[in-house]
Amino acid sequence: MLFLLILSAFSFVLGINNLAYAEQNPKITKSSEEYFADSYNCLKKNDKACAQIAAANIQKLSPYSKLISGIFASLEGDFETTFLELLPLQTNKSFNLQASISLHTSLALAYENQSDSLRALEQRVITDELFQRLTPSSQEDMNANEHQIWEIVSVLSKKNLTEMRGNSTDNAIQGWIDLALAAKYQSNGESNQQAIDRWHLAYPDHSAKNSIAAQLFPASSTKKTPQKAKLRGSVALLLPFSNASLYPISDAIERGFTAAKKIANDNAAVKIYATEADAASTMPRYQQALNEGANYVLGPLTNDAVEAVSHETSPTITLMLHKTENKARPANQFFYGLSAIDEIQQIIKLAQNSGMTKAAIVNTKEANNQKHLEAFKLIWLAEGGLLTVMNADDQDIKKQINDCACDMIFMAETAESARSTRALLPTNIPTFALSEIFNGLSFNADDAILKGIRFVDAPWLIDRDNPKFTLYKEAAKDLPAGEMQRWFALGADAYEILITLDMMPASSATINGLSGKIELSAAGEIKRTLSNASFTGDGVRLEATP
Question: What would you report as the CA-atom Rg of the chain, rounded to the nearest whole angstrom?
Fold first, then answer.
């Protein structure tokens, strides 16, 4: 029975027709990949002996030998050998798509046998992504795999699903878990509809949208795309347009917000309440917006103004565009911004995941540099790292860094400043920086000296050719590259955040936005993950999307 079950799970790799058995063509020399395909063709015919003969012709040192060995072990229920043979092969890039699918399906079956739901889900999701790349595709096999995914998550309790979600940062996996959580609302009337709508909003491109989700919630899946959730009333933009130095930022935010609203075909009224940077000018305008019946307030932007407004209580949803650390959040008040702390935390996590433990930080004695270095120092040391501080004006800084046995360097400088500092540093030690090091130009000859430096930044700046950003380009074309584009991205995502806050029941949501991957917790906390990038000889290169 186990043999037949696994044959069904692997039927997708058996589409190669007219392959002769190895013993019938002894003069034909085939590659290990072809013998692997022969073996599976035999399994398709339910001929295990034939499959073993074909497998015997695979070169022993070939990864296909370990692959077929692991799959045979899974057929026999020997999952210990399955793990032993197949786990090391996950990083092998030589397998074709069909072989990779069989690898991850075998591991999924092994994890399912051990009742390890999260690991089984991870393997099934990888398989799903591989199916989407397979040409020609097999919709039947893809559907079968997605139904297996649903079998894994749908039987888990809300508690187990929530715990599993906290243990995975993969967006596709989170989508499946959140879909299962949405299904738990199915007998609760309006709460169910809210959960379904929120899932479609958070995962518009998820592979389950037109399969499992459509089968579970047919009424919701038949809604036309233009009927996406919209704002339920007017928006007050409480921004420092009256301050000359902050006007360009306010303008970029307003452009981004308006662009997102237009793309969504949302006719909600928007009114600008211009302020200065201080609390004294902000509070009267905030009260005016509330008195005039604003349903949402976007802003304020500066620290002093945010501090003042955050002490007010109001039923109006207020999204402040400056993150305040360790601050109690009043009801209906939320904080989101272009926080350097988010960037520093992500860089530290990236470095530590790479095994780095001792950092050198470069002090230029500029105000912003000092602030960011102090933040890095506090977080790095709290995470158990070792630290050495270097002054950029030291004549022997390169020797100092080499002598300290540091395994990474952290810089907090703009592109112009970093070009001067970089010339003083060793290039053989991994170097990290904040988004401010990138001026927004994908190729700039002046940045050649920055080659090798890794940084994080908004996807809108790093991944400009992403099709999901196309509709925003016209609205942002007149804004300068770099910093103003980041504020534009913030404004566009602020619209999506307001929509999500308006719909959220007591659970979390995810937005794949222009400024980053935005995660909203059930408690109303908002977290941002950025893209990873690096300077190369050919310009800036995207390393990973959030």
Answer: 27
What would the pLDDT profile of 136-183 be if each residue is shown by its tens digit? 767 777 888 888 888 888 878 777 888 888 888 888 888 888 888 877
262 burial level (CB within 10 Å; 0-12, 13-18, 19+): middle
Q: Are the C-beta atoms of 422 and 401 separated by less than 8 Å?
A: no
Cβ neighbours for 463, distance < 8 A, ≥ 6 positions apart: 469, 531, 542, 545
Among 73, 144, 61, 50, smallest CA distance to 37 is for 50
Give the DSSP letter of residue 336: -
Q: Which DSSP string do the residues of 420-456 spell out, in sequence order?
A: HHHTTS-SSS-EEE-GGG--S-S--GGGGGGTT-EEE
Determine if the pTM surpasses 0.90. Answer: no
What's the mean pLDDT in 374-401?
Answer: 89
Distance of CA 55 to the CA centre of its chain: 40
Distance CA 39, CA 495 (A): 54
**ω into 136 cis (within 30 of 0):** yes
Largest CA distance in the chain: 90
CB 359 within 8 A of CB 380: yes
Q: In the predicted model, what is the mean pLDDT of residues 184-201?
A: 59
pLDDT attached to residue 135: 74
Instruction: Verify cis geometry, omega within 30 degrees of 0, for the bond prior to 300.
Output: yes
In the chain, the percentage of residues whose pLDDT exceeds 90 is: 46
Average pLDDT of the chain? 85
